Amino acid sequence: MTRRIRFASAGLALASGMSWMIAVSAQTPPGDGPKYAAGTNNLVRPSDYREWIFLGSSLGLNYPAPGAAQGPAQFNNVFVNPSSYRSFMKTGKWPDKTIWVLEFRGVGKEAVANREGQFQTGVVGFEANVKDSRFPDGWGYFVFRDNENATAPLSGDTVKRCIDCHSAHTAVERTFGQFYPTLLEVAKRMGTVRKDYTDP
After folding, report:
1. What are the distances in angstroms from CA 187 to CA 49, 79, 155?
2. For residue 87, what is the enclosing H or E element?
């Protein structure tokens, strides 16, 4: 009888422990940072980025290679993973595993007479900037082609242009925080604006 009670108690303890673990795991949100294809630095295109924090939208802020034509104006919608946004709002710094998504959309124009309205149309480009210690520079830059689920980080002269631009013109680390007033206010309050940055 004593033996049965011991086995029953052990079974109850095990069941309770498993229930607790399942409950904790159900409450723990999955990591929302960058995901990579197994064994590579190829970034997996996030499918839920439109549920992330929307930082803002701009028009015409594209950066052609030196000597290249400016190209057509596009809307640039920018999203960041929620955990990194919450961290930035507390510290003014982007934590490791921050991912910014840049969604480029075409520009439509209002057809009604005497009205100059513009609006967003279909997606014409998709990029991501990732802060991750796995990259030599600390940041990786990615350009996705149509229907591409994963892509390798930019390299060579292409990534050098990105690094040079983000090193010379950004307000907060390697990000253009000056284009997002809420972020810039936080960075100024926390003293994390780059020392050599001046407002435009």
Report:
1. 24, 18, 30
2. helix 82-91
SS3 assignment, position 134 = coil
Which residue carries 């229930």 as its tokens? Answer: 19
For the chain, the helix, strand and coil percentages under 3-state DSSP, each to the nearest 5: 35, 25, 40
> What does the pLDDT read at residue 100?
98
Q: Please choose, from the candidates 57, 14, 52, 17, the residue with its C-alpha nearest in 3D space to the C-alpha of residue 33.
A: 52
- Note the pLDDT tens digit of each residue in 1-31: 545 544 444 444 444 444 434 333 334 345 8
Among positive and negative, which fits the CA dihedral 68, 70, 72, 76? positive
Q: Which position has the token pair 């480029």?
A: 104
Identify the band that residue 194 occupies on the pLDDT scale cut at 50, 70 and 90: very high
Q: CA 112 to CA 129: how far, in whole Å? A: 38
3-state secondary structure of 34: coil
Distance (Å, whole) CA 82 – CA 78: 13
Measured in residues, the chain has a length of: 200
Among 69-73, 89-93, 94-98, 138-142, the least confident range: 69-73
Question: Which residue do the tokens 């930035």 mark?
Answer: 88
What's the DSSP call for residue 133? T
Cα 73 to chain center, whole Å? 22
> In the chain, what is the greatest distance between 2 CA atoms, to the nearest angstrom?
92
